[in-house]
Write a structure and sequence with these properties.
Number of strands: 18
Number of domains: 3
CATH class of the largest domain: Alpha Beta
Shape: elongated
CATH architecture of the largest domain: 3-Layer(aba) Sandwich
Strand order of the largest sheet: 13-14-17-12-18
Radius of gyration: 30 Å
Oligomer: single chain
Largest sheet: 5 strands, parallel
Length: about 525
């Protein structure tokens, strides 16, 4: 007796009956994000008989699952009424987590293709992403630039919301179709209209807003800033409140080399993945990030249930400024040690690991004591020696070992502040920094701050006079082996700024003078 549930339509060559599929299948290509890298996601949709409903599988986060409500409303409000069928959606590969609302548009298009509302052969070379509003309008997504780069590498054409088309336009040799709503995408797939192709944008010109010329006096600190920029060294500013530590730190980007196109795209990818582009197509200035002292470990180095880049990665190719350093939680400061050394942040979760780039110049600032006025000529310090040791001790240890320069920034006297002559402009300092960086690139292939101990011995040639000077400094200040390496790296940068191939005793002396905490421990 035949049940009639599976109608037989044909037999294969062996005479075995083959059932006619009850569900109509359609496939659309989309993309997901893993850190700042995109990967292809295949959206498979089956529309068949059964109780009307919507099932979604494929390791999807809650934001993806609740998209079914948006999709149904967007289809209805765009003039596409769904029949009472069972809709099953699979997001492949199932082993990678999918998050965000960017799958709304590809799922909606796949449903329409399964219902023959759009031709399926038009989807073969397209990668589609976009969030749907209830009225069918398309909203911007995060990660537009990394997805565009992946689309080019995978040789897809890209369909994106018009609101984030400027990100995709940055990627050369990629055909981009920008749509404002679901109806436009459907008409494009049917060949009725041509979607707008956004124009590629040139890298914006950098306009310095802050300049070293604004700083009067503070010559040792200005010199430390120049050395830090030239060699990629981390810098610690020590001085009383109001002496100009933040003012100095905020002007460091003005003497750094402008972002190259590769660096700009890499940094913009991080901001795109974090949803912090704020309408910009491409970052043109080196980032400067200054998080508050209450920041968590996840906020600083990245993390969360769905990992996002933290302030450290947002400062990639730029400056991370930590003001009032001892006020940060110890766990937060300790979390910086490995990323500062390796220049990347790796966030490990139970089912995935995400890596974000984090090549930054760290600038930190602290007061010399809890009240801030130890050694000040303006006010009397009320802190005991024990309180001062405990205060400075909050930053001692491995993090301090990764800071090459420690410079004291006392108050500037009134006459220096009122002087008519401005300090040297950033453009002049920047030229010396560029020249020193070019020397390092040719000789090291990297900045002096990243020199390995073996490479350091090769590039830091000491004559007898320089060797004796370093030995005297080691004995006088009790420098550790690690501190000696830091001194040599800084001395190498000082020599590079002067375009000297060999180190002089004066280079060693200046490098030691730029490590105030080493000198304080023995005086």
């Amino acid at each position: 007796m035949t049940s009639g549930l599976i109608p037989i339509v044909r037999s294969d060559s062996a005479g075995i009956a083959i059932a006619k599929p009850l569900a109509v299948l359609a496939k659309v290509f989309s993309a997901g994000m893993l850190g700042i890298q995109a990967f292809t996601v295949v959206v498979e949709v089956a529309v068949g008989p059964g109780l009307p409903g919507y099932d979604l599988v494929g390791h999807a986060a809650h934001a993806v699952r609740e998209g079914g409500v948006r999709i149904r409303a967007a289809l209805a409000n765009s003039g596409f009424k769904l029949p009472p069928r069972r809709v099953t959606v699979n997001l492949a590969p199932a082993g990678l987590r999918k998050d965000g609302a960017l799958y709304d548009l590809p799922i909606a298009i796949a449903i329409m293709a399964a219902l023959d509302l759009v031709p399926r052969n038009a989807l073969e070379k397209l990668l589609i992403v976009g969030e749907l509003a209830l009225d069918g309008q398309l909203r911007a997504i995060t990660g537009g630039l990394p997805i565009a780069l992946h689309s080019r590498e995978s040789r897809y054409e890209l369909v994106v919301p018009l609101a984030c088309a400027s990100e995709a336009a940055v990627v050369s040799e990629l055909k981009v179709h920008a749509a404002a709503n679901l109806a436009e995408v459907a008409a494009f797939l049917r060949g009725e209209v041509a979607l707008e192709a956004p124009k590629a944008l040139a890298l914006p010109e950098v306009h310095d807003r802050l300049d070293l010329a604004d700083i009067r006096g503070m010559e040792p600190a200005r010199r430390a800033l120049e050395v830090a920029a030239a060699g990629g060294h981390n810098l610690l500013l020590i001085g009383p409140p109001g002496c100009g530590k933040s003012m100095l730190a905020r002007r460091l980007p003005s003497i750094l080399k402008p972002l190259s196109e590769r660096e700009a795209i890499e940094t913009t990818c991080i901001y795109s993945a974090a949803g912090k582009l704020e309408g910009n197509a491409l970052l043109s200035e080196r980032p400067f990030r200054s998080p508050h002292q209450d920041i968590s470990v996840a906020g600083l180095i990245g993390g969360g249930t769905s990992p996002r880049p933290g302030e450290l990665s947002l400062a990639h190719h730029g400056v991370l400024f930590l003001d009032e350093l001892p006020e940060f939680k110890r766990s937060v400061l300790e979390s910086l040690r490995q990323p500062l050394e390796e220049r990347v942040v790796t966030i490990v979760r139970a089912q995935t690991a995400v890596t974000y780039p984090a090549s930054v110049t760290l600038v930190a600032a602290l007061n010399p004591c809890p009240c801030g006025y130890r050694g000040s000529s303006q006010r009397v310090c009320i802190c005991s020696d024990d309180n001062v040791r405990r205060y400075i001790g909050r930053i001692s240890g491995p993090l301090l070992d990764r800071i090459d320069l420690h410079i004291e920034t006392p108050h500037v006297d009134y006459r220096s502040l009122q002087a008519e002559r401005d300090g040297e402009q950033s453009v002049a300092v920047r030229q010396r920094v560029f020249a020193a960086q070019k020397i390092q690139t040719v000789r090291n292939g990297a900045s002096n701050a990243l020199l390995s101990p073996r490479k350091l011995r090769q590039v830091c040639t000491l004559d007898s006079a320089a060797d004796r000077q370093l030995e005297r400094c080691v004995r006088r200040f009790g420098l550790s082996a690690r501190a000696v390496h830091r001194v040599l790296r800084v001395a190498r940068t000082v020599a590079d700024l002067a375009e000297r191939p060999h180190l002089l005793p004066s280079d060693i002396s200046e490098a030691v003078s730029l490590r105030a905490l080493d000198r304080q421990t023995t005086t």
